[in-house]
Amino acid sequence: MDRPNYITPAGYSTLKAEYDALFGGERPKLVETIAWAAGNGDRSENGDYIYGRKRLREIDRRLGWLSKRMKAAKVVDPAMQEDRTRIFFGATVTVADEDDNHRILTLVGDDETDAGNGLIGWNAPLARALRGATTGDLRRVTLPGGEREYEVIAVTYP
Fold first, then answer.
1. Which of 57, 88, 91, 157 is exposed most, by the fewest CB atoms within 10 A?
2. Within the chain, how many helices (H) and strands (E) appear?
3. Predicted pLDDT of residue 46
4. Which helix (H) or strand (E) holds 13?
């Protein structure tokens, strides 16, 4: 990983909660079910055993991914940002496009993005274009739909 995995404290706790739920809850129950199913004899036609092993591989893969992301995480609290006039990690930004459509976006870690709720990843094209901007700045960004220009209307932090 060549760049730090910035994440908010809330995003990190979400990753940790998912890890704990899988590792401490779902995985032990599944191992118990697999052991029970293995004890029933023929495993080649044992649906509980076959499905359980498949699900266990999925859980282990997800646990590995979560573990790597949490290990690489650099937790940054946006509330501690000193320069609140510029757009940095964790900023909530109101932007207007060329058609005067306003959008409210929050720049968060790539693991906590949710575009439908206005949470865009720190490394997304629009977020990269907005970094360092202040109220009144115009920023041009190339998106899949073409090139757009955005004006920064407001910058706030929690």
1. 57
2. 4, 7
3. 82
4. helix 9-21
